């Protein structure tokens, strides 16, 4: 409704041009007439003062000459006034043309100043709107591309952890001379669990499956199972100590896959950066409506250059924690690394 009112109130450029022409024409005619009258009066006074008498033909010629000169002067004044009045519109039109050229070159950081209230103003406004829309669209595309790249980088990192576990389990079974059926069944179940985890991550990566949230009725049991799996991955290289006595049973709505990712990243960072054969502590507790996971380990004195930075893993954990209204705190002092993860729980 407001736009319609603006269109009704907007002056037409053609009307402004006609107005400029009429004003310039009237002033030109007036000045030409004044010049003719004044010039003829001056000529007559001059002739009278010098007692000069012109013949009829000479008077006609003089009158025609003065009229012609005054007419030319009127035309010059008309053109000058019209260009002066319309010059701003011409300059404004040139700035609009420059804006269109910039738009063609995908230069979106420009704004045409809005002047007047006619079709040129409306055109400039439309170009500014188009430029702004294109700029916002490009920013949105860049943001989506960056988020997509971060997601791919994050999930690719998390896929490696269960894949490494599968390789480790299969290598263990292959190298061990005698393996009982119970051990084989246990490791197959573990590998199947990790394979399903990889499938869920790849589905999320390819957007073929929406993230599933479920209500954990027995949250403590679920956390204990993941903690035991965390221990099974690390106990061959580290002395693992777990403490979840302060973890009360809880019920919450969450994605089990994301909780798996947290523990996978924790175990992965231990394998890469913790000092072998040293104590690795995992403490899980509930307090103030939060699930708190604390992991401590001694930092490895020498880290191979082939080992990638653990920033991606920490970023993944941070994103998941923040998604559930939580946070992470990381400290490293005197060779001891500690990460504390807090997640809001409750339905």
From TrEMBL:
Domain Histidine kinase, residue spans: 154-347
Membrane topology qualifier: Multi-pass membrane protein
Q: Which GO terms describe its cellular component?
A: plasma membrane
Q: What class of enzyme is it?
A: transferase
Cite the Gene3D superfamilies for this sequence: 1.10.287.130, Histidine kinase-like ATPase, C-terminal domain (3.30.565.10)
Which keywords does this Swiss-Prot/TrEMBL entry list? ATP-binding, Cell membrane, Coiled coil, Kinase, Membrane, Nucleotide-binding, Phosphoprotein, Transferase, Transmembrane, Transmembrane helix, Two-component regulatory system
The record ties this protein, via SUPFAM superfamilies, to: ATPase domain of HSP90 chaperone/DNA topoisomerase II/histidine kinase (SSF55874), Homodimeric domain of signal transducing histidine kinase (SSF47384)
- PROSITE patterns assigned: HIS_KIN
So where does this one cross the membrane?
Answer: 20-45, 65-86
**Coiled coil regions in record:** 123-154
What catalytic activity is recorded? ATP + protein L-histidine = ADP + protein N-phospho-L-histidine
Tell me which EC number(s) this protein carries.
2.7.13.3
Q: Where in the cell is it found?
A: Cell membrane
Q: Which GO terms describe its molecular function?
A: ATP binding; phosphorelay sensor kinase activity
* Name of the molecule in the record: histidine kinase
